[in-house]
Design brief:
By secondary structure, the chain is mainly α. It folds into 3 domains: 113 residues, no CATH class; 132 residues; 256 residues, no CATH class. 61% of the residues lie in helices and 2% in strands. The protein has 25 helices and 3 strands. It has a 3-stranded mixed β-sheet with strand order 1-3-2, with helices on one face. Strand 2 and strand 3 form a beta hairpin. It starts with 21 loop residues before the first helix and ends in a 9-residue tail after the last helix. InterPro entries: DUF885 (IPR010281). Keywords: Signal.
Length: 582
């Protein structure tokens, strides 16, 4: 999607057009693309460790700025079209060509969605991102402190632009669903009503020893930021909500089906129609149900899918007694899974990952548990757990989520990627099929490694996968109602009623994203099976994982090319060098 936060235009100094050969021209295009990407999303610079020209701006969202960025992307595409990737002199430049091609294709296709006209998003909207900006905002020098004051003083202008965009969206027939608007109202109210001393936005003041800056920054939060947030909340509550659509599917917006096609392609990087994704997901779900039935026969002498999941969900030893117990248990699983993952990889990243509950303003808003990376290895990454729903969580479910977010899942994936030598464009590039596909694959890998403590997680991890491929396409394209979608998701027993309703709202605001988990995982599993069949005894799991992860987040076509090239090289070598003990 487009940038999540913005307020004012920022003109990045782009490199002068490179003279010379094709390699120089490719390097120049990549540098321009990175600068443009960081202008759109400055937060990406902090998260991914890419240098920003300053720390004083939000990303631009005024109509004229969006048009300017579109034109800049079109110019990049014209330059890329003139370059033959086979003529490039290094693997890194060839990868940059593939990444930029994917990025530009995706961004242009997504223009039909007009996301800026209905960006009221409880999952990844700008109110949620504000707390992360506050955490990363640098304040070490006098210049940085001045820039912090400049950025946060400009938030009221950003809010005004967001309100203007949403009003224009209503005029043109675009809106977020009303149920999502209610969730965002709760999030913004939590921010706007917090005392300055307790606000998650006051972090820059708490990290500085400069008394004058601390006082000035707290004044900005209290006198400018909080009133602007309250104004946005009131706009949503008093004006926008009543006009927001009640249907969840993006097909209710203008050109909604075209938007879904573009969004699905962007998240998965695969050339599959919504119907193809739906049918592939249904086939995978049927296979999972059959496996669960067979497991249930062994465990309970009963192969009924619903009965098996009910017994597991209601088992006394699969419950938590408190929120604190869920958090502590998740931390223990992360520690244990890190140790167990040593046999799965050539090396583990040393960066710490903390397990922490949501900040107060996000509690109860329907946001999902998630991973927050940090490129700086001295900073911790975070597994943010929606622990307020502890009464409906199970120990098996907590184990599945912990390995998905931690080891061998996202923390292994992303913290390891940060240690690899990659170009800035490779650092910036992202798609959900690779990221979430690995997370889903990690759930399977955890079972192979003996990480799950009992059969509950083994059964529950099979109940949910591929359901997103079916429900997401059903909701957005195939005419499913909210009620039908929720009932289909409830069948898994994976989530309680509140979490399932929240999941439906999540799908509404991230059309196609929930399909990416299993679209990506199925590709990774298929590549592993291909490698095992081709290499036989020469197949080494740790080296396969190294090849999947070391290039960073790449489109599925690039991942396939990488793995098939690795298979060919390994087969040609005849034998592989034995992996070192870890």
């Amino acid at each position: 999607m487009r940038a999540l936060t913005c307020a004012c235009s920022l003109a990045f100094a782009l490199p002068v057009a490179a003279a010379g050969g094709v390699d120089a021209r490719m390097s120049e295009l990549a540098a321009r693309a990175v600068a443009l990407g960081l202008e759109e999303q400055p937060l990406a610079g902090y998260v991914l460790g890419l240098p920003l020209p300053d720390h004083a701006h939000w990303s631009p969202r005024a109509p004229q700025d969006i048009a300017r960025i579109d034109a800049a992307e079109d110019a990049l595409q014209a330059g890329l079209d003139a370059i033959d990737p086979d003529a490039l002199g290094s693997a890194a430049l060839k990868l940059d060509h593939a990444l930029l091609s994917e990025r530009l294709q995706s961004q242009k296709a997504l223009r039909v969605c007009r996301f800026e006209l209905w960006d009221v998003n409880h999952m990844s909207g700008w109110p949620v991102m504000l707390a992360r900006y506050a955490r990363f905002q640098p304040v070490s020098t006098a210049a940085e402190r001045e820039q912090a004051l400049q950025r946060w003083s400009a938030l009221p202008a950003f809010v005004d632009q967001e309100i203007a965009n949403l009003r224009e969206g209503l005029k043109q027939g675009y809106s977020a669903p009303r149920s999502v608007v209610d969730r965002v109202i709760g999030q913004v109210d939590g921010l706007a009503s917090a005392r300055v001393a307790d606000s998650p936005l006051a972090g820059p003041a708490t990290r500085s020893e400069d008394a004058a800056f601390k006082s000035a920054f707290e004044e900005v939060i209290g006198d400018k930021v909080n009133p602007a947030l309250a104004r946005y909340r009131d706009f949503l509550r008093e004006e926008y909500r009543a006009q927001a659509r009640t249907a969840l599917g993006v097909s209710a917006n203008p050109q909604g089906e075209a938007c879904y096609d573009a969004s699905l392609r962007s998240y998965t990087t695969l050339e599959r129609s919504a119907r193809e994704v739906h049918d592939l997901g249904a086939k995978a779900v049927a296979a999972n149900v059959a496996e669960i039935s067979a497991m249930g026969e062994k465990l309970y002498g009963n192969g009924d899918f619903s009965e098996i999941l009910t017994r597991i969900r209601e088992a006394p030893d699969n419950q938590f007694a408190s929120e604190a117990e869920l958090i502590d248990y998740s931390r223990t699983v992360v520690e244990q899974s890190r140790k167990a993952s040593e046999k799965l990889f050539l090396a583990l990243p040393e960066q710490e990952m903390k397990v922490e509950p949501f900040p107060d303003f996000m509690r109860g808003s329907g946001a999902s548990a998630h991973y927050e990376p940090a490129a700086d290895p001295t900073r911790p990454a975070y597994y943010r757990i929606d622990s307020e729903g502890w009464a409906n969580e199970t120990r098996g479910g907590a184990e599945i989520t912990a390995v998905h977010e931690g080891f061998p899942g996202h923390h292994m994936q992303l913290a390891f990627a940060f240690t690899q030598d990659k170009t800035p464009l490779a650092q910036l590039s992202f798609n959900s099929a690779y990221a979430e596909g690995w997370g889903r694959y990690a759930e399977r890998l955890a079972e192979e490694a003996g990480i799950y403590s009992n059969d509950y997680a083994k059964v529950q991890r099979r109940a949910w996968p591929a359901r997103g491929m079916v429900a997401d396409t059903g909701l957005h394209v195939l005419g499913w109602s909210r009620e039908k979608t929720v009932e289909y998701l409830k069948e898994t027993g994976r989530f309680g009623p509140a979490e399932t309703e929240a999941l439906a709202d999540r799908m509404a605001m991230l059309p196609g994203q929930l399909t990416a988990y299993d679209s990506g995982a199925l590709e990774i599993v298929a590549l592993r099976e291909e490698a095992e069949a081709a290499l036989g005894e020469r197949f080494e799991l740790r080296r396969f994982h190294d090849e999947v992860l070391r290039h960073g987040n790449v489109p599925m076509s690039v991942l396939r090319a990488n793995i098939e090239g690795w298979i060919a090289e390994t087969a040609a070598a005849g034998t592989t060098r034995s992996a070192p003990d870890t």
